[in-house]
Specification:
By secondary structure, the chain is mainly alpha-helical. The chain has 7 helices and 3 strands. The protein has a 3-stranded antiparallel β-sheet. Helix 1 packs antiparallel against helix 6 and helix 3 crosses helix 5. The longest helix is centred in the N-terminal third of the chain and has 23 residues. It starts with 6 loop residues before the first helix and ends in a 21-residue tail after the last helix. The N terminus and C terminus are likely disordered.
Length: 174
């Protein structure tokens, strides 16, 4: 009998089969997009996209942004309890892979799912965004919701947050 495994085995099963399906669908159907320079999306483009999604922190960031739309770097820091430099590095990696767009508002950087039509990243996200969003833990979701409530209630900005060291711990400065 061919039954679907439980728990983590099921998530691994779904992720593995989704990746294979996406690659097979692209190869079999010839579903190829155009990147910002008007070149065909190549296997190398897909390799970069899947490398970007092959990291737990980046998957968590993608899940947060898929679920919540646009988020500031400080929102990602608070939800994942990571340093600003680590959050920025991972967000930049996802942006460079074509998965995220960014916009600046003064000193603050906000990230959202890429809206550029026709890119390989857009195709991958269309096929996998529900799965990626479902991987987000309840604890991370709770921390983000709590931070967003505090931020809104107290009219806080990223500037008013305590800094975190490279291990994600508060260092006491404001």
């Amino acid at each position: 009998t061919n039954s679907i495994p439980d728990g983590l085995k099921y998530q691994s099963y779904v992720i593995a089969h989704t990746v294979y399906f996406t690659i097979d669908y692209t190869r079999i159907c010839g579903y190829v997009g155009i990147d910002k320079n008007r070149r065909s999306v190549t296997m190398k483009n897909y390799e970069e996209i899947y490398k970007a999604l092959a990291d737990k922190t980046r998957l968590e960031i993608m899940a947060l942004i898929i679920r919540h739309g646009e988020l500031c770097v400080c929102d990602v820091e608070e939800a994942l309890q990571i340093s600003q430099s680590k959050a920025s590095r991972h967000l930049r990696y996802l942006k460079n892979a074509g998965l995220l767009d960014d916009r600046r508002e003064g000193l603050w950087a906000y990230y959202s799912v890429s809206s550029k039509a026709g890119t390989g990243a857009k195709q991958v996200l269309e096929m996998n965004s529900d799965l990626i969003a479902s991987l987000l833990s309840d604890e991370i979701e709770r921390r983000l919701e709590e931070w967003l409530r505090r931020k809104s209630k107290e009219n806080k900005s990223c500037k008013s947050r305590p800094n975190r060291n490279s291990e994600g711990e508060h260092n006491g400065s404001h």
